[in-house]
Amino acid sequence: MKTTLNIHDELLAEAKSLAARQHLTLTRLIEEGLRMRLRATASAPTKKRRAMPVFNGKTGLAPGLSGLSTREMFDAADDAA
């Protein structure tokens, strides 16, 4: 399949140089790079979930949390870890 890409001039020059040194076509070099990136993304470990702080008292939220801001909740979870 043919496609058009916009590649920064310096990056393209480096890629052409590398392809020539390795006796590859530019197309082959780009395909290999894309395959490597796609494999790395597919095999990347999933992020470990963090437990949210829970207050087991009668008043609801942990002291200092208003419950009005998601960012506040995420910051509290980060502080607890």
Report on this model:
This protein is mainly α and 81 residues long. The protein folds into 2 domains: 9-42; 48-81, no CATH class. The protein has helices spanning 9-21, 26-42, 70-80. α1 crosses α2 (26-42). It is rod-shaped. The mean pLDDT is 84.
**How many β-strand runs?**
0
Low-confidence stretches: none
> Biggest sheet, open or closed, and with what strands and sense?
none
Tally of helical runs: 3
The overall number of domains is 2
Q: What is the overall shape?
A: rod-shaped
Strand content: under 5%
Helix content: 40-55%
Distance between the termini: 48 Å
Global mean pLDDT: 84
Rg result: 24 Å
- SSE order, one letter for each helix or strand: HHH
- Secondary-structure content class: mainly alpha
Q: Main traits of this protein?
A:
rod-shaped; 81 residues; mainly alpha; 0% strand
Topology:
Blueprint: H1 9-21, H2 26-42, H3 70-80
Helix pairs in contact: 1-2
TL;DR of this structure?
With about 80 residues, the chain is an all-alpha fold. It contains 3 helices and no strands.
